[in-house]
Amino acid sequence: MSIEELARKNVRDLTPYQSARRLGGKGDVWLNANEYPTPVAYALTQQTLNRYPECQPKMVIDRYAQYAGLKPEQVLVSRGADEGIELLIRAFCEPGQDAILFCPPTYGMYSVSAETFGVECRTVQALEDWQLNLPAIAEQLAGVKVVYVCSPNNPTGQIINPQDMRTLLEMTRGKALVVADEAYIEFCPQATLTGWLADYPHLVVLRTLSKAFALAGLRCGFTLASEEVIALLLKVIAPYPLSTPVADIAAQALSPQGIVAMRERVAQILDERAYLVSNLRDIACVEQVFDSETNYILVRFTASSTVFKSLWDQGIILRDQNKQPSLSGCLRITIGTRAESQRVIDALRAENV
User: Fold this and answer.
1) Where is the Aminotransferase class I/classII large domain (predicted)?
2) Residue 308 predicted with pLDDT over 90
């Protein structure tokens, strides 16, 4: 029996998540991973690397709880929000029996995490405006334990209608968890659902330091939920999910000064987004620039494959979304620096399509 044959069948058949780094490229303008465009400097203050770290570093938990307006017992920290996605499946879904549900076009890790554990994936295509198709979701809920809703949605950039979220929470009460993936919520903080946790014990909110906090390389995320949900997740999380340096930097980022700096970065990104959008709308090969509440925009192009390759060849790396349902002709562009935006604008103006 070969090594391949020894592996579980669902893993042999699995298509891994195609992250920006996995897709690669040789560019110098990286606008494909929704990262903050410039590094933020931190100095390590913890030197006790001979000791194992805390499972849930107290300062990180306390500061995030204060930032989110919750109790520390409602906060779990993990290796990015991606680990939170996985922990929820591990804790709540029986392989071969239960299912998760999500609504494409959306983030690709929900399916990869479920398939890895042998848990069924159900999809309900979003409506034309990329809002939830609630009647179709209701028809698919039997056997579903976890519903993932990304809001603002990646890659489309829009907030999911709050009233639809409330309807979804009512229809899943006592049946399934609803997970609001708020990776980009710092760019539209008024849309957070954290204030709903007291009313909906089956609501879970995912957060990250990768976007507005400019710490994608740190791999630090948070799961916000009822104390009961957090207690269950603590049963399945690894013994030491965060290294000491990660906890050290995360605590600094969540200090009062760190949060002020984050909000200044958000204001800067929103200004750059407005500049890029206003210029793109005058370019011949641009069919539509969709509204966004995030640090990226979705753009539909004439001959998008040609545009994508042309910019790639010039060292400008975007994210192709053509394979996502309803996103034919669409490319996703992360908001970078003014100079990077200008590179994109100039390159697109030179296109003859």
Assistant:
1) 29-348
2) yes
Q: How far apart are CA 52 and CA 69, in angstroms?
A: 29
Q: 117: Cβ–Cβ under 8 A, 6 or more apart, which residues?
A: 86, 89, 90, 93, 95
- pLDDT digit string (tens) for 198-209? 999 999 999 999
* Mean pLDDT score, 210-217: 98
What is the amino acid identity at position 188? Answer: C
Distant-in-sequence, close-in-space partners of 58: CB < 8 Å, separation ≥ 6: 72
- Architecture field, domain 3-38+258-350: Alpha-Beta Complex (3.90)
Distance CA 296, CA 273 (A): 8
- Residue-wise DSSP of 261-292: HHHHHHHHHHHHHHHHHHHHTT-TTEEEE---
Predicted TM-score (pTM) of the model is 0.95
Q: How would you class 84 by CB atoms within 10 Å of its CB: exposed for 0-12, middle for 13-18, buried for 19 or more?
A: buried
Residue 286 has pLDDT above 60, yes or no: yes
Kindly report the CATH number that applies to the domain delimited by 58-254. 3.40.640.10
